[in-house]
User: Fold this.
Amino acid sequence: MPLQINDSEFYAIDAHSHLGLRKTPLGHGVASFLGDDLVRNLDEAGLDCAVAFPLGASYTDYSEANQIMADEMAKYPKRIISFCRINPNFGPEATARSLDHCLGTLKLKGIKLHPEIEFFDPNEAELMEPIYQAARRYRVPIIFHTGMSSKASPGVIAELAARYRDVPVILGHMGVSEYVKLAVAVARQHENIFLETSVVGWMPLLLEAFRGVGTSKILFGSDHPYNPLPMEVEKISKHVAKAAKLKPEDFKKVFADNLLSILHHDR
Ligand SMILES: [Zn+2]
Assistant:
């Protein structure tokens, strides 16, 4: 079922979702969520495809979780675009090895980093450079969690992102709330920085992003399964659409084409 907006149908991809098996639900309330669950919910929400990466976990190098991502993408190659998740605290050599495995062998399509859960500084060159170098070599994007902590500030992320202008960097949640203005500023400043819509919920801030950077640099994301897909879809397809007067070509870009071009990917 394709995404219907104003009587038109759109091919639609979610740029931010999670899969995995955790022993406990942690604070997020989700323990197990795999490809079958995701695809069923995509069908219900009228989405064709989702970028997915591992659920956050307590101290791990995510090697098991990244293998699950490869397995689930193999089950649903047209519906799930799996990224790996990296914990840079295992050190530059472990990071480089892990990325060669994930991007080279498992053929995962991008890299997810969470500076708050994994607790690292996204401008710490020694830990981060192997990640940017692997992203460059394998021509994949990096998506950061942003917001909720100073470690996940768009300003800190932009320091290194600016040095790797050929590596697309997606600011997940576009700073959530207090960092949205900064996310908009760095996305305007740097051609390789993109904003993703999940979680940010105050309409004036969302509109500031849509007006400030334009629809060529914004990607629809949900942070599913933490957030319900219809809630995040309608936030953009109904509410932002009305307030920002989005046109069909804007929906095409935000719900699919911007991400497809970052991924060098066809449908
Ligand atoms: Zn997330």
Remarks:
- Residues 56 and 117 are 7 Å apart (CA to CA).
- Residues 248-263 form the longest helix (16 residues).
- The chain has a mean pLDDT of 96.
